[in-house]
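Protocol step 4 of 5: obtain the predicted structure for the target chain.
Materials: sequence only (see below). No template structures provided, no constraints applied. The aim of this step is simply to have a reference model before the mutagenesis design in step 5. Sequence pasted as it appears in the construct record:
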Amino acid sequence: MSDYGTILESGAIRFERRLPGPIERVWDYLTDADKRGKWLASGAVQPWVGGSVELHFRHADLSPHKEEIPEKYRACENGASFTAEVTRCEPPCLLSHTWADGSEVTFELTPQGSDVLLVLTHRRLTPTEMLGVAGGWHTHLGVLVDHLNGRTPPPFWSTYAPLEAEYEQRLAAA
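Step 4 output (structure tokens):
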């Protein structure tokens, strides 16, 4: 299984990660505000169709290793927030919700022995959004893997920047 996202169709990318279970533990990292805040964005989730998902991004807080934010991303220095809407919810196996730009992200969890297969699919992305989303999800999922395995994640921005460059090449070749 490659860590890199796979382009499914125009405007859609898919990631797979094998995570230590059980499935309820991984589900908590998708729906509990504090746990989700450790790897993606904090904020409450109303786990039913039509419920809201608050996403408060603080990339600099995802690792105890502090670094300067690159100039290109200084607008995110104090965080960014938006509210999304749950479009599908089947605990503890499936959660879909909108994203600020009108796209939709789906998390699917499948038990595999003592592990859990996470399949994340982000759809309805413009070509411009695809680049940031691809590198962003890759980086955020790496932080999630580190937390679930009891490791300290590296700083966000110095991990994200080379991945963004790699995805720029991968997407141009697709």
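Step 4 remarks: The chain has one domain: 6-173. The mean pLDDT is 94.
Proceed to step 5.
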